[in-house]
Amino acid sequence: MTSANPSTPPFSKDELRKAILDIFLLSVRTTSLWTTSRYAQKVDTSLPPTDLWNPEAAAEDFDFKYEQIAESTIAQVLDYQYDYALLGLEGLDYEHMEVGTTHTWVAAYLVDLLDSHVISEWESFGAVGGDRSSVQLCLSVCELANARKTLMTGEGFFSFFYYADRASQKKGMPANSNGGLTVRQVALLSGMEETTIRAMISRKNAGALVPHKEDGRTLFKPEVVREWLQEKGKLMPITYGRPGDELNLSTVEFKSLNAFVEACSLRLFTLDRKQGDSNAISQKVKVLLGKDANDLSLDLQMLRNEPLMKELASLLESPPELFALRAQQVALQEELSVATQRIKRMTQGPSS
Questions:
Q1: Were 228 and a residue from 16, 205, 208, 211 both cysteine, which residue would form a disulfide, CB within 3.0 to 4.6 Å?
Q2: C-alpha span between 85 and 222 (Å, rounded)
Q3: Comparing C-alpha atoms, which of 316, 307, 319, 299 is closest to residue 249?
Q4: Comparing C-alpha atoms, which of 283, 331, 285 is closest to residue 312?
Q5: How does pLDDT run across 240-274, given as a tens digit for each residue?
């Protein structure tokens, strides 16, 4: 059962990424069923296609690395959800967790994999990767993130209790809990067993944790669970900002003025949310630039203004010297792009 203590997650992000890589290898195998045999050879030219289905072959045997799939939707979604579910960090650099977003579809995909007959057959051969445990690990992140989002906002991104409660599913009960938390979700959020939660309720010694019935199910209002977790010292606070939310000036080269402005705007938004005041830093930036910070805009003249860029960097809590140099780099790139386009138009001549 997942611990509620953000300082001691039950598994590391590296373990999560290993599980994601296992699922990726499984998807490569199943996708190969739709392609010619040459597809398998593209996985590794030193291996014949049949080795793709070798149950003893793991991702590393095909030279697959997580870095190769780190930008995939599944990897990004689960990375984001891990930070939120287990560390209490809500990022501003990716799609928010709402119904109908990629968070929903990744959850649905993992639920489907949990009952996969392909995985069942694969496990019967004693496969070393792509088994059900990898799916369960990824799904545990998804499910806890959904429970925590429901706890904090009253709305999750997927009805996990619908697949867990097969009896209700067979009876045709709706998959909508109207923002209520299930016994399983309360157990996940508190780090306790479901049986313990049910026993507390039945003995009516759960304190503030008072349930209500909805379509025959036992549910809890989010505010009730928050109060109960607070009393037990298990309410994880949510902090805005993830490790990737800062301006990465050391390794990232901004390809255009728009890209640089978007990165600065995201950083500004992140800092405002962290401080709990939606206008504190924005107002200072507005005064500095003489523009509305809600629609941050920079031009080439501003980018060349080194003192101005250093002041902006200080407000955005970024290294002033490096920030100013990156601004100058963007300005030069924009000027070079314009000059290149002019040369191209002049040398191409009139179209025939």
A1: 208
A2: 16
A3: 319
A4: 285
A5: 766 655 677 887 778 788 878 878 887 887 777 66
Please count the other Cβ atoms lying within 10 Å of the Cβ belonging to residue 6: 14
Q: Tell me the percentage of the chain whose pLDDT exceeds 90.
A: 40
Of 84, 25, 90, 83, nearest in space to 52 by CA: 25
63 with 57: CB under 8 angstroms? no
Predicted confidence (pLDDT) at residue 14 exceeds the cutoff of 60: yes
Residue 277: left (phi > 0), alpha (psi -120 to 50), or beta?
beta
Rounded Cα distance, 176 and 216, in Å = 13
Copy the structure tokens of residue 33. Answer: 């069923």
Q: What amino acid occupies position 328?
A: Q
Cα separation, 272 vs 276, in Å, equals: 6
b/e map of 147-163 (b: 16 or more CB within 10 Å)? bbbbbbeeebbbbbbbb
The identity of residue 299, as a single letter, is D
HEC readout, the chain: CCCCCCCCCCCCHHHHHHHHHHHHHHHHHHHHHHCCHHHHHHHCCCCCHHHHHCCCCCHHHHCCCHHHCCCCHHHHHHHHHHHHHHHCEECCCCCCCCCCCHHHHHHHHHHHHHCCHHHHHHHHCCCCCCCHHHHHHHHHHHHHHHHHHHHHHCCCCCCHHHHHCHHHHHCCCCCCCCCCEEHHHHHHHHCCCHHHHHHHHHCCCCCCCCCEEECCEEEECHHHHHHHHHHCCCCCCCEECCHHHCCCCCCCCCCCHHHHHHHHHHHHHHHHHHHCCCCHHHHHHHHHHCCCHHHCCCCHHHHHCHHHHHHHHHHCCCCHHHHHHHHHHHHHHHHHHHHHHHHHHHHHCCCC
- Residue 295, pLDDT > 50, answer yes
